[in-house]
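Our working data are protein records whose layout never changes between entries. Getting from the letters to the tokens is the skill we practise here. To make this concrete, we reproduce a full record directly below:
***
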Amino acid sequence: MDTVTLHGIKIPFAPDEVSPVIWQAIISGRYEAKEAKWVFKAVKRGDRVLELGSGIGVITSLMATIPDVRIWAFEANPSTAALAQRVLDTNTAGNVLLTQGILAAGEPADHRFYVRKDLWMSSMDKEQGPYEHEISLASANIDNFIAAHEINVLVMDIEGAERDLLQKADLSGIERIFLELHDHLYGLAGIRDITQALAEKGYAYDPRGSYGPCVLFAKDETVREYEDDTAEHHMGL
């Protein structure tokens, strides 16, 4: 087993545990590079964070370095969740709880999840591309989870499922939402749907924490003392 360091986070697994594309992205430093920098503009000291789509746990581990932050993370893909737990066990100190499963708006339901060789392509979208196999996942209600755990920040990278969730969920109590948009899956129409839905819930696009497809929507008007080197400090660069 190899251990490489990515954005200051130790990655304790062997190259053959992920696809060659993913491994090259990890060792080159490209894997989640934009998210690794900009998530620090969304999450601050003392936040209670819900993360949907933790992947291998890199962004989760970075958020966990922020003082007094608590994180509840979800990852749908069982094999990816197992890798993420290994990364979290190596890099975090008990302030993260990872669950293999999904949260969705509305009543609990069974969902089909399509597992693909490149883990960042696994999703609930059957049409996204060829898949290795499919699994059934029972969802829990996201708004109930937010209320029960007093979540105030939502971080998500769920390969297109954000469109439906952000339109249908209430999101009461959430101050900031940091997500990766997937316009290649739903086009500008999907981005319009997301933006309009969040505007109706009182959120505004926040350019201070957005870069390309990694965007921050916020309700609060508090001046956030973030500079561009904040993330670099956390990543040890």
